[in-house]
Write a sequence for this structure.
């Protein structure tokens, strides 16, 4: 009995030598699987688990998830902790290589690996009891040491924000770290993150990519999501194309509006320079440009100037010219000009008599608070 156990230990060790490339051997998954198979036949827990891993990853044998799960279950019954962890969490578990005394030169790296594994084991025990607060410091050590399972767990903790401040950026960071190492749950959760737009923009293409990776590890939920997204993808991409087009249109409109504001500001600046030099005739085209573009100040200022011109021509008894300037000013919303225009329509000065037009312009001026217009309107039209 003892001899058989010693033989199985030897076979398992030989399997590790070829799997990890230890004790002078080159990595050879076929030979590793053969030795693990011999040791598993003797019910060696570690070798049975490693044979399951070979079947899951297709290393040295054909990829066969059903066979892998069978070996994991057997190994778990034999007491292998990695097998138990694999079955309970659904996460891919690949043990660290055993220490190779012939090739290990860097004791610091060895210590770091052991520290990472120890922290991950402690964290795992706490998470099984839902004690995430106690698990958190150990998860940080393990995650920073490169443990993919711990990295995915940190992603969950930061996403939920129950024991730490919620931080979607950190959640995404750790999920990416985990997924990139081939952790099935990390890949699934990264797909979930992009599918629901949890802290990131929704992206069905990225979601599908990560779900497919998780599905390749025989994740049933991921396989369902792959089918679901493939059905939803055409509608999503159509909506996304519409959204992008709308965003582009908004950006173009904003750029146009910003450009118009810049042009208006420049036109007003040039006008003011001419105004200060008493060269109004040279400045008016710039003021009109700003007014035509819809600037309120320019409209009001231009209306005042046109009104002044109208008053000058009216004083010189050039009623036709006065009417033209008052009309330009009135259309810009100048209440004084609207009143004068109403009077000219009512009296037929500079234009044909038109009481309807007089009433219209008088009402506009009155509505703006022009006292004479209000008094006249109430006298003749109320």
């Amino acid at each position: 009995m003892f001899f058989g156990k010693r033989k199985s230990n030897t076979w398992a060790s030989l399997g590790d030598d070829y799997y990890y490339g230890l004790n002078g051997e080159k990595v050879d998954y076929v030979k590793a699987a053969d030795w693990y198979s011999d040791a598993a036949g003797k019910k060696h827990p570690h070798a049975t688990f490693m044979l399951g891993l070979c079947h899951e990853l297709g290393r040295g044998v054909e990829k066969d998830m059903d066979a892998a799960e069978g070996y994991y279950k057997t190994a778990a019954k034999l007491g292998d902790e990695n097998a138990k962890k694999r079955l309970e969490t659904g996460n891919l578990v690949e043990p660290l290589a055993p220490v190779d005394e012939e090739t290990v030169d860097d004791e610091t790296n060895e210590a770091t690996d052991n520290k990472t594994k120890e922290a991950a084991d402690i964290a795992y025990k706490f998470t099984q009891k839902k004690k995430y607060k106690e698990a958190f410091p150990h998860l940080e050590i393990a995650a920073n040491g490169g443990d993919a399972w711990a990295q995915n767990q940190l992603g969950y903790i930061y996403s939920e924000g129950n024991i730490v401040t919620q931080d979607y950026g950190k959640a995404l960071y750790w999920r990416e770290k985990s997924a990139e190492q081939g952790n099935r749950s990390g890949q699934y959760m990264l797909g979930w993150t992009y599918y629901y737009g949890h802290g990131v923009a929704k992206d069905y293409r990225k979601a599908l990519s990560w779900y497919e990776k998780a599905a390749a590890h025989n994740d049933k939920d991921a396989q369902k999501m792959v089918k679901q997204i493939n059905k939803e993808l055409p509608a999503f991409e159509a909506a996304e194309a519409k959204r992008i087009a709308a965003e582009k249109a908004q950006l173009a409109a904003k750029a146009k509006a910003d450009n118009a504001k810049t042009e208006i500001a420049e036109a007003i600046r040039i006008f003011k320079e001419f105004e200060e030099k008493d060269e109004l005739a040279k400045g008016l085209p710039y003021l009109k440009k700003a007014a035509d573009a819809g600037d309120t100040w320019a409209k009001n200022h231009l209306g005042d100037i046109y009104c002044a011109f109208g008053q000058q021509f009216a004083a010189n008894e050039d009623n036709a010219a006065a009417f033209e300037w008052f009309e330009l000013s009135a259309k810009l919303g100048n209440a004084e000009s609207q009143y004068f225009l109403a009077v000219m329509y009512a009296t037929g000065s500079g234009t044909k008599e038109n009481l309807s037009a007089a009433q219209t312009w008088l009402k506009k001026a009155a509505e703006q608070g022009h006292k004479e217009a209000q008094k006249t309107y109430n006298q003749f039209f109320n």
Notes: The chain has four domains: 2-89, 111-218, 220-288, 295-381. The CA atoms of residues 59 and 230 lie 30 Å apart. Confidence is low (pLDDT under 50) at residues 1-6, 99-111. Residues 2-89 form a domain with the Serine Threonine Protein Phosphatase 5, Tetratricopeptide repeat fold (CATH 1.25.40.10).
